[in-house]
Specification:
alpha/beta, Rossmann fold, binds flavin mononucleotide
Length: about 200
C-alpha cells in the first residue's frame, strides 16, 4: 500500500491529528507527516508540549509518545519544499489535513503553495489524488465557506469533525476516536480493530 500524507496545521484540535497518527502506525501503515509552523504553536499553547522541529528528533518524539514501533513514519519540516512528497511523481494513497486551519484552507483554495503542506495539497488536487480536509473553525465566515466550496469543486473532500451522539461518547477522547475511524472510511480503511471505540 502507498503511504499516506498527514498534514497538521495550527487549528485547535490537535488530538485528532495525534489519534490519526496512532491508528495508522498501529495498523502498520506508512505515514509522511508535516506539521505547519502554526501547529507547533498550538501544541505549545494548548497541550503545553514543545514538539521537536528536527525531523529525526520528531520521529523519535512520536514513537515515544505513542509507544508504537510498527508502521513507517517520516517527518518533514513545514518549509522543506524540495522534499520528495512535493512532487507529482511521488505516489500516495492520499493526503489528510487534520486539523485544517482557515489560513491553510485559504492558501490552498487560492493556489498559493508557500509551504510544503500547501504544495503537497496542490499536487494532490492536480493529480486527482484523494485530498481530505478536516476544517476546524466556528463560526465559518463567507470567505471560509467559499474557500471550502472551491476546494470541494476542485476535488477535495471536506470532512468537518462533527461529534455524533449515536456512538454514545463518554468522553472527548471517545468523540475523537470515533471521528478518526469514520474519517478513514473515506479510504475504505477499517481502523476499528485496534481502536477502543465499539460499534453499536
Ligand atoms: C492556540 C491557537 C488556536 C488556534 N485555533 C485555530 C482554529 O481552530 N482554526 C483556525 O483556523 N485557526 C486557528 N488558530 C490560528 C492559526 O494558528 C493561524 O491562523 C496560523 O497562521 C495558521 O497557520 P497554518 O495554517 O500554517 O497552520 C489558532 C491559533 C492558536 C495560537
Amino acid at each position: 500500500m502507498k503511504p499516506y500524507v498527514i498534514a497538521v496545521t495550527g487549528a485547535s484540535a490537535q488530538p485528532f491529528a495525534e489519534k490519526t497518527l496512532e491508528l495508522l502506525l498501529s495498523k502498520d501503515k506508512e505515514v509522511n507527516l508535516i506539521l505547519s509552523k502554526g501547529a507547533y504553536q498550538v501544541w505549545l499553547s494548548e497541550m503545553k508540549i514543545k514538539i521537536p522541529i528536527d525531523p529525526l528528533q520528531q520521529e523519535s518524539f512520536w514513537r515515544e509518545r505513542l509507544n508504537i514501533n510498527t508502521g513507517k513514519l517520516k517527518c518533514y519540516k513545514w518549509n522543506d519544499n524540495s522534499a520528495n512528497i512535493a512532487s507529482g511523481s511521488y505516489k500516495t494513497t492520499g493526503m489528510v489535513i487534520i486539523p485544517a486551519s482557515m489560513g491553510t484552507i485559504g492558501r490552498i483554495a487560492s493556489g498559493v503553495s508557500l509551504d510544503l503542506i500547501e504544495r503537497v495539497a496542490d499536487v494532490h488536487l492536480k493529480e486527482s489524488k484523494p485530498l481530505i480536509l478536516v476544517p476546524r473553525e466556528t463560526p465559518l465566515n463567507l470567505i471560509h465557506l467559499r474557500n471550502l466550496t472551491s476546494l470541494a469543486e476542485a476535488g477535495a473532500k471536506v470532512v468537518p469533525p462533527m461529534p455524533a451522539w449515536y456512538s454514545e461518547p463518554k468522553s472527548l477522547q471517545d468523540i475523537v476516536d470515533f471521528f478518526v475511524v469514520r474519517l478513514f472510511d473515506q479510504f475504505d480503511e477499517d481502523l476499528r480493530s485496534i481502536n477502543r471505540w465499539k460499534a453499536t
